[in-house]
Write a structure and sequence with these properties.
single chain; about 450 residues; D-Maltodextrin-Binding Protein, domain 2; Lysozyme; ten-stranded mixed sheet; 21 helices; 10 strands; about 50% helix
C-alpha cells in the first residue's frame, strides 16, 4: 500500500510547518511563541496527534521550494491566496481577510494614487505584493518597484521609518501590528480589499493531509476558535490613535525606567508588562494622578480599595503599585475556573474597571444570546448591552458603562502589546554580539534556518 502524505506525517510523528521568519511572531518573548498561525499550527499538530516542527526562512521563495521538495508539509505564514499561487499550490480554507496598503512615513508628502509614488517602493520577493504590483503595472506602465529577499514585510516597515526606502506595500494586519511601535507609519491608500489568508501545501493527487486541514478548520470554526483567535490578535488593534501611541512610546522612554522595577517586584504571577500597561491606562504613570470621583495614584485606587489592600498613601508609587497588583490578583482569583487561562487577564481587567457584578451580568447575557460566557470575544459584545434598558433591567446589578469597559480593556491590551514588542526590538537591536550568540545557540543563520519548537512554547499567552 502506497504511503500517503498523512500517513508519513503520523509515522514520523512530526508535522513540519513552514513560516516566513518574523521575530515578533514566532519569538514573542523569551518563553512564548505567539501569533494566529502559530497557535493554529500547534492545534493542528495536536489534532493529528504529532509534534510540531517549525521551519523558518527569510526568503518566501525558498519556503515554496522546500515545500515542493517535501521538506515542509504546510506553509502557515499568513499567505494571501492569489491566482498565480493557486496555479502552483493548493490552499486550505481561508480564515482571515486583509487589505494591501501603500505605506509611507508620517511627515512626508502623502501619495494618493500610484502616479504619486516618486521615490523607492520596495516589497519582499515572491510575496503577493509583487503579483499585485505586476497586475497594476498593466494599466500603470510607469509604476516601478524593487524586490528584496533579505528583508521581510516587518523589516521593510522599519526601513521605511529609517528612511532607507520611501514606500512599501503592506498587509493591513502587518501595518496594524507595527504601528504599535512605529506610530509614524502612515496609510497612503488601499490597493486591494478582502484578500483571503490561508495555509498552503503542495498541489498533487494526494488529498490525505489536505482533507485533514479542511476538517480541522471546519472544527475550529464550529467551535468558535477562529473567532476567538481573530479577536485575540486583531480585535484590539482596529482603533489606532496616533497621538496616544506617540505619547505612550515617549512615556516608555522617559517615565517607565523610574517605575519598572516596582512593576517587576509586584507582578508575582502576572507579567510586569501587564501591570505596567494597566497603570498607564489608569494614570499615565503619574504617581499624583487623581480624578473627580476620588480615585488616586499610579493605579487610581478608590479609598475603600486602598484600605482593603493595606495602602496607607495612594500617592506613594510603591504602595499604589503593590495595592493595585494585589487587587488585580484578587480579581483574577475570583473569576470562574471555567474561563481559560489565556483570557483570564482580560476578564479581570473588565472586572477592575466596571465591577465584578456587572461582568457576571454580561456573562449571563452571553448565555441568553447563545454566546460563550467564558470567551472574551463574546463577552465584550455583551458589555455594551448593559447600557440599554432592554437588557440591564433584567440583570442583577443593573446599568453599567459597558462600552467604556471594552475600550478600557482594548487600550490596555494595546499598551501591553507595545511593551512586549518594544522589549523584543530593544533586545534584538541592543547588541549584535548578543544576537549573534542567540542565533548561534539555536543553530541557525540570520537569513535561513530551521528550528524545532517544543510544544510547551505554544501554550496560549495573551
Amino acid at each position: 500500500m502506497q504511503e500517503t502524505h498523512l500517513s508519513r506525517v503520523k509515522s514520523n510523528k512530526v508535522l513540519v510547518i513552514g513560516t516566513l521568519y518574523n521575530p515578533t511572531t514566532y519569538f514573542n518573548g523569551e518563553e512564548n511563541a505567539s501569533g494566529m498561525d502559530s497557535e493554529l499550527a500547534q492545534r493542528f499538530a495536536s489534532y493529528l496527534g504529532v509534534e510540531l516542527q517549525i521551519v523558518s526562512n527569510a526568503d518566501l521563495s525558498e519556503l515554496f521550494s522546500q515545500m515542493n521538495e517535501g521538506k515542509i508539509d504546510v506553509i502557515a505564514s499568513g499567505l494571501t491566496v492569489t491566482d498565480t499561487r493557486l496555479a502552483k499550490m493548493r490552499f486550505g480554507p481561508p480564515f482571515y481577510t486583509i487589505s494591501q496598503q501603500i505605506v509611507f512615513k508620517q511627515g512626508k508628502k502623502r501619495p494618493r494614487k500610484l502616479s504619486d509614488l516618486t521615490g523607492t517602493l520596495m516589497v519582499a520577493k515572491a510575496s503577493s505584493h509583487v503579483e499585485t504590483l505586476s497586475q497594476l503595472k498593466l494599466e500603470n506602465p510607469e509604476l516601478t518597484w524593487q524586490t528584496t529577499s533579505q528583508h521581510n514585510p516587518d523589516q521593510l516597515l522599519k526601513m521605511l521609518i529609517d528612511e532607507e526606502i520611501d514606500y512599501t506595500l503592506a498587509d493591513s494586519n502587518v501595518l496594524a501590528r507595527n504601528r504599535r511601535i512605529y506610530p509614524d507609519l502612515s496609510l497612503a491608500f488601499t490597493i486591494t480589499r478582502n484578500d483571503s489568508l490561508a495555509w498552503a501545501l503542495i498541489d498533487d493527487e494526494d488529498d490525505s493531509l489536505f482533507s485533514e486541514i479542511i476538517a480541522f478548520f471546519g472544527q475550529q470554526h464550529n467551535e468558535g476558535v477562529l473567532a476567538q483567535l481573530e479577536e485575540k490578535y486583531f480585535g484590539h488593534v482596529q482603533r489606532f490613535d496616533y497621538v496616544d501611541t506617540r505619547a505612550f512610546i515617549k512615556a516608555i522612554d522617559k517615565k517607565l525606567p523610574t517605575y519598572q522595577v516596582l512593576f517587576e517586584l509586584n507582578a508575582k504571577d502576572l507579567k510586569w508588562e501587564q501591570l505596567a500597561a494597566l497603570s498607564y491606562q489608569e494614570s499615565h504613570w503619574n504617581p499624583r494622578a487623581k480624578s473627580p470621583t476620588g480615585v488616586r495614584g499610579m493605579m487610581m485606587l478608590t479609598l475603600p480599595t486602598a484600605k482593603q489592600m493595606g495602602v496607607k498613601s495612594r500617592l506613594n508609587p510603591e504602595q499604589s503599585i503593590e495595592g493595585g497588583a494585589k487587587y488585580l490578583t484578587k480579581m483574577l482569583a475570583r473569576l470562574p475556573e471555567s474561563i481559560p487561562q489565556s483570557q483570564r487577564f482580560w476578564f479581570a481587567l473588565a472586572s477592575y474597571n466596571v465591577g465584578y457584578g456587572h461582568l457576571m451580568d454580561a456573562r449571563k447575557l452571553a448565555i441568553t444570546q447563545s454566546k460563550d460566557a467564558d470567551s472574551w470575544s463574546d463577552v465584550k459584545l455583551m458589555l455594551p448591552l448593559l447600557e440599554k434598558k432592554k437588557y440591564y433591567r433584567k440583570t442583577r446589578h443593573g446599568y453599567a458603562r459597558g462600552r467604556e469597559a471594552v475600550h478600557y480593556v482594548d487600550s490596555i491590551r494595546r499598551y501591553y502589546d507595545t511593551l512586549i514588542a518594544m522589549n523584543i526590538h530593544s533586545k534584538l537591536a541592543s547588541s549584535d554580539l548578543a544576537l549573534a550568540a542567540r542565533i548561534d545557540s539555536l543553530g541557525i543563520t540570520p537569513l535561513k534556518f530551521e528550528e524545532i519548537v517544543p510544544s510547551e512554547l505554544f501554550k496560549s499567552e495573551d
